[in-house]
Amino acid sequence: MVRMMIVLLAIVMAAMAGTAGAAVSPTPRPVSQQDWEFLIKAHQGSLAEIEAGLAVRRKADDQDGKVGQAVRELGEQLIVDHMRLDRLIQQVAGEMGVKLPDEPSAAQRRQLEEVMALEGAEFDRAWIDMEIASHRHGVILVRQQVENSSDPRIRKLAFAVEQVVRAHLDMFLHLQEPPAPSPSES
Asked: Do the Cβ atoms of 43 and 96 come closer than 8 Å?
């Protein structure tokens, strides 16, 4: 898991370095509707994932450690990875003259509130399910952007986002899988 995070970090840092060196034109080029929507959704998605990670942290504190260790670790990973991604998203949006919202969408906030109302193992399971659904949806959105954007900066950004979202999805799916039976249980 640590190795995967190091590789993921290297990919994101390489993508960030590539866009940091890009020339910034005095007037941003017009942004297609698709690219504009992608920047907004990617930013709100990162904000929602940061909030989800912070929610796990608060829930763990509120419940005297009753939040599962794996859920707590994934929550922390969401915070770190999505803060990094969001800085990249904000940089590209700024270069393109796209104003980003200050918070996740109303639907994202509502969904997190519903999960936060749960306790213990029920919270853990609902949080994992929410994250799997969110990351599956994210993979579809960023893949479409990688394939269809006409702007190379957006394609590069979408590819970086896709790598992180896919890695997170894999971690959540692995966590959701039941443990393999031991040889003595066969």
From this structure: no
Express each pLDDT in 4-56 by its tens digit. 444 444 444 444 444 444 444 445 567 899 999 999 999 999 999 999 999 99
Closest-CA residue to 45 (of 162, 134, 167, 145): 134
What's the CA gap between 180 and 100, in Å, rounded? Answer: 44
Q: How far apart are CA 116 and CA 22, in angstroms?
A: 41
3 state SS for 140-174: HHHHHHHHHCCCHHHHHHHHHHHHHHHHHHHHHHH
Model confidence pLDDT, tens digit, residues 80-114: 999 999 999 999 999 999 999 999 999 999 999 99
Check the CA dihedral 131-69-84-18 and report its sign.
negative
Which residue, 90, 106, 109, is CA-closest to 161?
Answer: 90
Stated pTM of the model: 0.78
CA 163 to CA 85: how far, in whole Å? 11
159 within 8 A of 146, measured Cβ to Cβ: yes
